[in-house]
Amino acid sequence: MGSTRRLAGFGIVSVLVLAMAACSDDAEPTSPSTTAASASSTAPATPSGSASSSASGPATSSTTTDPDEEPLTGFDLDEKDGGGFPDLGDDIGPGEGVRVGRHEGYDRVVFDFTGTGTPTYRVRYVDTPVADGSGDTVSVDGDAYLEVLVTTVSIPGAGQERPADSSAADLEGTVVAEANAIFGGFEGYGQTFIGVRDTQRPFRVSVESAPTRLVVDIAR
Predict the structure, then answer these.
(1) 49-69 pLDDT, tens per residue?
(2) Which of 86, 92, 136, 190 qualifies as a cystine partner to 185, CB 3.0-4.6 A?
(3) What is the per-residue pLDDT across 191-207, written as a single tens digit (0 to 9) for each?
């Protein structure tokens, strides 16, 4: 009888042990599922960060580029010539005057001529303004000097008055310290100088027709 009770007790203990083992075996898979849930909850963090980075890229470029602002092109310090210079070009007349005006980012000097031909030209910075023919030093206001040579300039007629040079009022607020008209020339070459304030500044040159004009733009 006692032996039967011990067997029965042993059986009960065995059942309890097996039940606990079964519970322990059932608990093992919960750890990976918990990890997966944790990973799934943190996974969106990476795409969210990437979206934030890509959004910041265009913001930077938009602050450095203004689509409505026209960039200055063709400006530098190099000598510029055109139309086959130093060969003589078409007759452009003796010269009619000079105008100075302000534009966005640069100041413009325009030399007007009465003829209809296309001029050849050379525009460059020189250390000292020197007159063609005589070799004399020319007094020019400013700290840097652009020499302007244009062909083919004809000899003024008898009694023809020299056109006016730019006045102080014309030059006020510009980087141009002096700009004088071209009136006649030496052996077909008309010469003048543009005095530039402070230092040599990048410039560009173009030719316009109807009426004939030589245009020098100087960057501010």
Answers:
(1) 433 333 333 333 333 333 344
(2) 190
(3) 999 999 999 999 999 99
Residue 26 has pLDDT above 90, yes or no: no
What pTM, to 2 d.p., does this model score?
0.68
CATH number of 80-219: 2.60.40.3500
Amino acid of residue 145: Y
CA distances for 141 relative to 42, 133, 211, angstroms = 72, 21, 29
Q: Could you tell me the residue ranges of all domains in the chain?
A: 2-64, 80-219
